[in-house]
Design a protein that fits this description.
Layout: H1 2-16, E1 32-37, E2 41-53, E3 56-67, E4 75-85, E5 89-96, E6 111-117
Antiparallel strand pairs: 1-2, 2-3, 3-4, 4-5, 5-6
């Protein structure tokens, strides 16, 4: 039953958030929603930039994962992100904020990094 509740929460966030226009930069007041899925799980991220200076962005947000197969566990957790965004590529690092006072459950990754290349 827990994955269903988490999935419904994710869907509610997706409907409530707004995706940012691609390629035009990020306004500090906008929200970003990103989702992905596999055969064993699905996850969504909703975030909001708090500081933008040129291609550098600092954001906060929540990451959620629902798992219905395998040994991984679902979670809902707050993250801080620092990213560099250009027209050809983007790189970012995410840090879990365990003592933030915000609601969270499960065991999320403490640190993640990502890279996107545009062709």
């Amino acid at each position: 039953m827990r994955p269903l509740v988490l999935l419904l929460t994710i869907l509610a966030l997706m409907l409530g958030g707004s995706a940012l226009a691609e390629g035009e930069g990020v306004a500090p007041t906008g929200y970003s929603v990103t989702c992905s899925a596999s055969l064993a799980s699905a996850g969504c991220w909703i975030g909001r930039p708090v500081w933008v200076l040129g291609p550098v962005e600092v954001a906060v947000g929540f990451d959620a994962r629902a798992v219905w197969a395998g040994e991984a566990r679902g979670y809902w957790a707050p993250y801080a992100i620092v990213g560099w965004y250009s027209s050809a590529w983007a790189a970012w690092v995410e840090f879990h904020i365990p003592e933030s006072g915000m609601f969270s459950f499960g065991k999320p990754d403490p640190f993640r990094a990502g890279l996107t290349l545009r062709f």
